[in-house]
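Hi team,

As requested, here is the filled-out complex form for the D-galactaro-1,5-lactone run. I kept the field names the same as last time so the parser does not choke. Let me know if anything looks off before we queue the next batch.

— J.
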Amino acid sequence: MKNLLITGAAGDVGSRLRKLLKGVYPHIRISDVRKPANIASGEEFIAADLADYEQVKAITAGIDGIGPLGGHSIEAPWDTIHKANIVGCYNLFEAAYRSGVKRVVFASSNHAVGFYPRDRKIGVDVTLRPDSRYGMSKAFGEAVGSLYADKHGLRVTCIRIGNVNDKPLDKRRLSIWVRPEDLAQLVRIGLEHPDIRFEIFYGASDNAASWWDNSNAQRFGYRPQFRSEDFRAEAMEGQAKLPPDPVGDRFQGGPFCSDEYDAGRG
Ligand code: 15L
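And here is what came back:
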């Protein structure tokens, strides 16, 4: 892997991954709608709006692999999700294919399966149960990746990312937390492992309270280095500061599930 493109490079997760992948790949092109403040040596920046196909085509030219973190990363009105995550995601896979890119690591989300109850442990082969328009757009992205892998031979890895942070912030995050270094390990598997065709991994560290069976990632050599239990006391302090959320507390997606929820109205 010589030429890597990271989209969403100005965002929090994009910025963290750029630092961790610096030096791993000889040339990293970074892209976002706005220019990141801290462009490092060895990074080439090209601005692009993912909703504009010609701009996306331009940033994928000459690229071998893409780590796409672009798009909208939380719940939003349909127009925002549609442009950034539906049109944008389609454009990215289509442009990758037309430009001869070999691999895409798609930043999916736990919110593609957020309506699974917390007492259920799920693997990567369950029916998708998105908890928001945002989660639905990630389910769409996994489907687009699957199509381009099966039909055009793109090597695609979808990572259902939990919550990326230095520490788990609350009780829910004890189950879904991923330390940036562990996420970078998963991204590298997606970009480098010779046997990847189309795979789904959970973006989670070594979390004893996990709701996910991540044996598929382990099969490809994933060995998370960080454990959420080491931060349990702090996470529970964070939890105590949150408002009550009886609906969100039942489901893996938490507040994304309770937001706009009225399924119980009869
Ligand atoms: C996500 O997918 C979001 O991008 C992030 O902002 C967090 O909200 C995270 O999920 C989470 O579930 O905590």
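Two things worth flagging: Residues 222 and 265 are 43 Å apart (CA to CA). The mean pLDDT is 97.

Thanks,
J.
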